[in-house]
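Good morning,

Both structures are done.
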Amino acid sequence: MGESSASKPCLEADIWAKLVPAHSMYSVVDIRSNETVVYSEISCSSENKHEWCKITRSLNQSSAMIQNKSSSTILIDGATVQSEDIMLIQSGSEIIPGPDREGHLSYRFETIPTAERCEKRLKISIDIENAKCGICLNIWHDVISVAPCLHNFCNGCFSEWLRRSQERRATVLCPQCRAVVQFAGKNHFLREVVEDILQADTSLGRSKEDVAILDSHALIQSNLVISSGRKRKRPHLAVDEQTSGPDLSCPQCGTEYGGFRCNQDTVHIPCQVCGGMMPSRSNISVPQHCLGCNRAFCGAYWHSQGVARIDGHPLCTYDSFRPIMERSISSIPFTAHETNRYEQDITERSIRQLGRTLQDVISEWIGKFDNREIDRSRMPLNHADVITAATHICNDCYNKLVSFLLYWFRFSMPKYLLPRMHPREKIVGMDMHVGRSTTVRNMLGKEITFAVQPEGLIHRRRVVSASYQSG
């Protein structure tokens, strides 16, 4: 007979998976939370409940990570899993909470497809003709919006229109209404709408060859400021005066740096940090966008061009946008372990107890990350599958990566290596985590489990023997 730790009343829509027993005389265990500790009668003759596994949901929703929480081995699809070990399970996996089949219950892990869950979703009626690109007349692919007219086009289609327009005109006109285009950027909401349309009618999709051609032309990765080619007439000035004038968008508009100088057709993009402009260039090896958040940063670009500082032009330092392998860290990020100071303190003490530094631990886990020894499905960064130690990311994304790696560091650490806490520190830690509305009443001989959710990941550990009630 199974029972999950998420025992509060929930709607059927909250159930994303089930543990179905082999014998109908036992109850199905509904799994609602992203991480669930399951208690069960280990054998048919047992009357006591035992904590025997912890199931953590994966992002793809068709699999999960299971951790053996019992003191003995368990069987998963015939494979033996030791105590505290973790294994990936798929829908249909067989789980036996014991070292053999005889005398132990057998469960089958089943995920519930989204279509079967009673989710309330906003239904939008849309005319297919209004979801088509005004250039190729097909359903949008990697849709972008232009301003100020707010018409929408395929990224590849508009990028090619932009290139040809800048070769022939002083300004870029909207292909649909002929208004002067000043900005262009990706429209993530409409992209999701397109995905729903294609799921409803697959015949509207493009061939792989067409998609590859569009992607090869696509230039817009973040918001672009499209400058006009018109230049105001002004008297002839000395070279130094011309290059430092207020009309220049970026340092390379007036002076050649790194073998490049902007022309009147150059598209500029604003830096997320300093707000300064840099030319959008697709033919260089240095990235101008953070792969983790898709935002534009100028630090690495100006560093590669040999530009340090120029009056009148805001520039970022190289430290604001650099490869993961070149970064260092001396303190745990504030956002680690979902800003839980108690868990951060345990992590910090654990590192010191091992005789190591935070930089040593992060370097080690970056190596594991690079070797794909870590499950990336819940990593809170875009393009998680292609990020490596050589990838340029911004400071915010680096802190998220560090928090993600610290979660796995804590998750993989054996209990006997965790630092011993003073009883008073344990109570303070519990009070901090369960919130102001919960008060620890009496110290009893029962173990309670507290949840910590670092960057979208939920982690549970036994903290202290106590009982509590809502205040």
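Second structure follows.
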Amino acid sequence: MDTLRLLSKNMKIEGNPFGSSHQRNQFFLKFVAFFLLIGLAYRLIVTDSTVSPVPDVRTSPESSPSDPSVLTAVAEAPASVDSPRNITIASQNVVASTKCDIFTGNWVPDPSGPVYTNVSCRHIQEHQNCLKNGRPDANYLLWRWKPRDCDLPRFNPEQFLDKMRNKWWAFIGDSISRNHVQSLICILSQVEEAEEIYHDKEYRSKIWRFPSHNFTLSVIWSPFLLKAETFENTEGVSFSDIQLHLDELDHKWTDQYINFDYVVISGGKWFLKTSIFHENNTITGCHYCQGKNNLTELGYQYSYRKALRLVLNFVAEPNHKAQVLFRTTTPDHFENGEWNSGGFCNRTMPFKESEGEMKSEDVTMRDIELEEFRTTQEEGSNSNIGLLDTTSMSLLRPDGHPGPYRYPNPFAGVKNKDQSRTHQIQIQNDCLHWCLPGPIDSWNDLMVEVMLNREMYR
């Protein structure tokens, strides 16, 4: 008010209140200036004393909502091969524009641990039952996968089974696929116990049912995905060269394919084994045949590319209804040797994102996988094929393998004293497969996110 009185005093007009024309003009200009000054003063006072009703929104990876249930992460259809997985974070009222690659990130501490144990799940294969076999540390159980720029929803077995009513889900591949399906069954069995309704003679291919949901789950042993004759003993050692038919798929899975609603399919390490190649009923070359019978060394790159092209062409056929995820290669963590030459894996902590280095064979196989997947995308013949890229997250978990604990109590009775020196009998390590429970359980978070939510982005 003091300001107002001062302005009024300065604006006094002597004599006739209306004065002359010049005086009236001066009065009008002073009157306008008065109200402009009043408005400016009011604006400054309100701005300094009022808090904006719109809160700041931070999209830093470290920030998290007070109620995580408000956010839902959903996978997007592939945009490119180098970054084929995108997810969008959305709340009930606001949709954020930030997208992220759910397959790039780090393992972060998770004190809650796994949802099952080797006691609560009866489907764990003995070679992967690390706790039962005497592994002394359990820190490898206390980590979860965290994408770099977003949150990944935890796999919800109740919701999964509800969505899978009257459906059939199949895993097709080698022993890593079997490792994966056992992880999935262990999680689901905490809601409903699975009934095994079929197994082959070697117990490599199996079928389970979840009766109250009429959900069928299969694993089909087909390490090459192609027709192949293999000759191995029970320890996985070949006693004759593998005969691999590069122009014919394995009928063990193709004959059943019409039944499946969802499929996770993968190649793997078997392509690194010595093998003879057949095409058009003719031997055309080999991999690592070391000059036998004057065969042409074509290499595993040749056979792997041929196999993936044949597989992807088959699943992309328009008359095939199944939604498919092609899973990328799984790196091993053998150090100071391989599985049959004294290699071991005794780490107890994950790598960070910048640590760990893939072997050249794994790099080559992954490159072939991405190239062939890109070709399928570019052809656009079937939008139901997605990429399940577990390579990077797996590379960061050298601590998650059975190692020597693929056998019960592997160090019991293997030490012999000789002149005050202790010599250990060599123990075979498994640095390729995963302990159950273990890091492979997180594959299911990604698998379900990409498979069941990607249609929201078409």
